């Protein structure tokens, strides 16, 4: 079955480029030129992947990410001319899966779409309950609990925490984590550090006696095995 792609982008030149690129792989795609139209098409067609510009004429694209995340885990790849780290963090923290800066290489866009689709399939096929110490994730319900208290995490924090829990005891390099959580070409280590720090604080609120996320300076992070 063809993957369905929704492109929310108001620049006709980018629309033409993306359309020509997706046609090479025979993807099915639709365009929306505003946030409102994009949300309407999303509800109507349930796309597999969303490509989203942030600079839309009626709303900021981050608002669109929030709206989609209220009801769907469909991969969202931001394609934007904004290159500042805080713009990237805002979009990823809202629930975007990846961030590609304009101008972009068409082959890179296709690679990121393939990664997003594979990641979604991988999460859907993972075990339902993942537990370490007082930390428990229910993948089917997309909930996180610490000592029977529900942890409110962003979509990006959820993906990061699930990856760490699925690899308890293993040191995951920065590059491995960035690739799995944010996409094939991501290299934003400062953003990763922000998310790890925030997750630590949220977990320690309900389990202050254990250090779940261990830093390996210059290498990456490891989820420590916690014995009950």
Question: In summary, what is this structure?
Answer:
The protein has 2 domains: 4-123, Response regulator (Rossmann fold); 127-223, Winged helix-like DNA-binding domain superfamily/Winged helix DNA-binding domain (Arc Repressor Mutant, subunit A, Orthogonal Bundle). 44% of the residues lie in helices and 21% in strands.
- Which homologous superfamily in CATH is the superfamily of the largest domain? Response regulator
CATH topology of the largest domain: Rossmann fold
Low-confidence stretches: none
Return the string of H and E elements.
EHEHEHEHEHEEEEHEHHEE
Helix content: 40-55%
Averaged pLDDT: 88
Descriptive account of the structure:
- The structure is a single chain.
- This protein has 2 domains: 4-123, Response regulator (Rossmann fold), CATH 3.40.50; 127-223, Winged helix-like DNA-binding domain superfamily/Winged helix DNA-binding domain (Arc Repressor Mutant, subunit A, Orthogonal Bundle).
- 44% of the residues lie in helices and 21% in strands.
- It contains 8 helices and 12 strands.
- The chain is an alpha/beta fold.
- The termini are far apart.
- A hairpin with a 4-residue loop joins strand 7 and strand 8 (143-146).
- The strands form 3 sheets. Strands 2-1-3-4-5 form a 5-stranded parallel beta sheet, sandwiched between helices. Strands 6-7-8-9 form a 4-stranded antiparallel beta sheet, covered by helices on one side.
- The protein is elongated.
- Helix 1 (12-24) packs across helix 5 (106-124), helix 2 packs parallel to helix 3 and helix 6 (155-165) packs across helix 7 (174-182).
């Amino acid at each position: 079955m063809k993957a369905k792609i929704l492109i929310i982008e108001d620049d006709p030149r980018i629309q033409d480029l993306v359309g020509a690129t997706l046609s090479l792989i025979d993807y099915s795609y639709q365009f929306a030129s505003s946030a409102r139209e994009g949300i309407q098409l999303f509800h109507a067609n349930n796309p597999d992947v969303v490509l989203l510009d942030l600079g839309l004429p009626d709303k900021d694209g981050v608002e669109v990410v929030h709206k989609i995340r209220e009801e769907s885990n469909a991969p969202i790849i931001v394609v934007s001319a904004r290159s500042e780290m805080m713009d990237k963090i805002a979009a990823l923290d809202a629930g975007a899966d990846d961030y590609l800066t304009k101008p972009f290489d068409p082959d890179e866009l296709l690679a990121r779409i393939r990664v997003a689709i594979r990641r979604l399939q991988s999460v859907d096929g993972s075990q339902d309950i993942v537990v370490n110490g007082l930390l428990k994730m229910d993948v089917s319900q997309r909930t996180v609990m610490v000592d029977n208290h529900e942890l409110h995490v962003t979509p990006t924090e959820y993906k990061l925490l699930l990856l760490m829990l699925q690899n308890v005891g293993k040191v995951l390099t920065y590059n491995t984590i960035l690739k799995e959580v944010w996409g094939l070409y991501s290299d934003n280590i400062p953003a990763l550090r922000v998310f790890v720090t925030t997750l630590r604080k949220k977990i320690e609120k309900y389990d202050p006696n254990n250090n779940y996320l261990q830093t390996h300076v210059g290498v990456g992070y490891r989820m420590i095995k916690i014995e009950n």
